[in-house]
TrEMBL record:
Main localization of the protein described in the UniProt heading: nucleus
A GO term, aspect molecular function: hydrolase activity
Organism: Vespula maculifrons (Eastern yellow jacket)
Compositionally biased intervals (Low complexity): 47-56
Biased composition (Polar residues): 165-176
Domain of life: Eukaryota
Protein name in the entry: Pre-mRNA-splicing factor ATP-dependent RNA helicase DHX16
């Protein structure tokens, strides 16, 4: 029995110790909260007024603001919506007008499809209706009677602010000097006006009695061609005047008979712009195949693509496009694609066999660069296992024999003739200052030669900028 009593006593002692520990923790937390509250009451709140009365007032003000906000928000929402709609209408009309102006500037009427023509006409009709609606609103405002307001009188008394931008003394002095240097006449600059009508003393009056019809046979005039037709006619005449035009059929026949062809022609003979068009007209772009042409410079790829699209009367990016670094102006309809040598390298990464191309033209092969040399090795390997791929190497120098030997003795197609005669002159002695010699030569050409243009090649962009 004594053993059981000792166990009960020890359990009661442990329970009492646990209760005392919990009670002590509770008292400690309550004391900490009281100290915190006491410190909060003594601490000065700079952003909030002190005192219980101020707290109650702030609470009531917050409730009043909540009620007023709930009543005011719908009204503000309606006003904001009205202002937004007015501004949005002006922005959309200006955006539509700018879109029409850009579309008419970039694309001519004859190169648009029927759907694009309908879209342009629809945009013009929308713009006209929007402007007529605005005019109708202005007329309605004018015809209404408006109560006069006193603020209009006050607005009239206020001087309008100076809208001119501030000018420094230097700019004012320059404008004064420019105005004094301009040669002006007084009344001489005005257009002559007719002060009096010519009066005849004796005038004879006539009465039409009969009109005899004339014979229109042989005297009927043909309608004058439109400006677009004149442009197309000029383009066709220019294409026929190129040295490559008489050899069009022979060139196409040679391309059909040989897989690799070296084309040699002078600069300006029409190799870059005309050969892709001849291939397109001969059916080399059927079955969704592409005629590719690589250029050493990105500016050349862009300008040549724009020129070919203009000659073919198509929109740039549809049948004719270009691809350069960070810019791809092609679509699924593109059949003639101009690209830089670096872009063609990336084409090999996506299409190692150039499966989407039927003809590949390496233009300006005489400009030996690292990209061009790499391309020669790649296209040479591809032509050995793709017999349907045509490879054309275009060069403007007399080194075509070396290209022919590299491509397994490929045939050479030479295009004789130049568009303009070329005379070559050399200086009798070396010039110490070649920039000064260029300037003197240009002035000498202008003074002694027939009228025309002068093209000067310098060593770099820095020299060009410094000698403008």
């Amino acid at each position: 029995m004594s053993k059981y009593r000792r166990q009960e006593t020890s359990s009661e002692d442990s329970d009492s110790e646990e209760e005392r520990r919990k009670k002590d923790i509770k008292e400690r937390d309550e004391f900490a909260n009281r100290l915190k509250a006491k410190d909060d009451t003594k601490t000065r709140k700079v952003a909030m007024p002190a005192g219980s009365g101020a707290a109650e007032a702030a609470k009531r003000l917050k409730l009043m603001e909540t009620d007023a906000r709930e009543k005011l928000v719908p009204k503000l929402r309606v006003e904001s919506r009205r202002k937004y709609l007015e501004k949005r209408k002006e922005d959309k009309v200006a955006e539509l007008e700018a879109d029409i102006i850009d579309d008419e500037y970039l694309f001519e009427e004859e190169i648009l499809t029927e759907r694009e023509k309908r879209e342009r006409a629809h945009k013009k009709q929308l713009l006209q209706l929007a402007k007529e609606h605005e005019k109708a609103r202005e007329l309605e405002r004018v015809q209404r009677y408006h109560m006069p307001l006193e603020k209009k009188k006050l607005e009239a008394e206020i001087e309008p602010p100076d809208t001119e931008p501030p000018q420094s003394e230097q700019s004012k002095w320059e404008s004064d000097q420019m105005s004094s240097a301009v040669f002006r006449f007084g009344a001489k600059d005005r257009k002559a006006q007719q002060d009096y009508d010519l009066l005849l003393e004796d005038e004879i009056e006539f009465i039409q009695a009969l009109r005899m019809p004339g014979s229109e046979k042989g005297t009927k005039r043909e309608p004058s061609p439109s400006p677009q037709a004149k442009i197309l006619q000029t383009i066709q005449e220019t294409k026929k005047s190129l040295p490559i035009y008489p050899f069009k059929n022979d060139l196409i026949q040679a391309i059909k008979e040989h897989q690799i062809l070296i084309i040699e022609g002078e600069t300006g003979s029409g190799k870059t712009t005309q050969i892709p068009q001849y291939l397109y007209e001969s059916g080399f772009a059927v079955n969704d195949k592409i005629i590719g042409c690589s250029e050493p410079r990105r500016v050349a790829a862009m300008s040549v693509a724009a020129r070919v699209a203009h000659e073919m009367a198509v929109k740039l990016g549809n049948e004719v496009g270009y691809a350069i670094r960070f810019e791809d102006c092609t679509s699924h309809r593109t059949r003639i694609k101009y690209m830089t040598d670096g872009t063609l390298h990336r084409e090999f990464l996506s299409q190692p066999d150039l499966a989407s191309y039927s003809v590949m033209i390496i233009d300006e092969a005489h400009e030996r660069t690292l990209h061009t040399d790499i391309l020669f090795g790649l296209v040479k390997d591809i032509t050995r296992f793709r017999s349907d791929l045509k490879l054309l190497i275009s060069s403007a120098t007399l080194d075509a024999t070396k290209f022919s030997e590299f491509f397994d003795d490929a045939p050479i197609f030479r295009i004789p003739g130049r568009r303009f005669p070329v005379d070559i002159y050399y200086t009798k002695a070396p010039e110490a200052d070649y920039i000064d010699a260029c300037v003197v030569s240009i002035l000498q050409i202008h003074a002694t030669q027939p009228p025309g243009d002068v093209l000067v090649f310098l060593t770099g962009e820095y020299i060009l900028v410094m000698n403008r």
